[in-house]
Amino acid sequence: MVKEILVRIFDRNDRAMNVKELCKEMLKEKMVSPNTVMLNLQKYKDLFKRVEKGVYELVKQPKKK
Question: The whole model's pTM is what?
Answer without folding.
Answer: 0.85
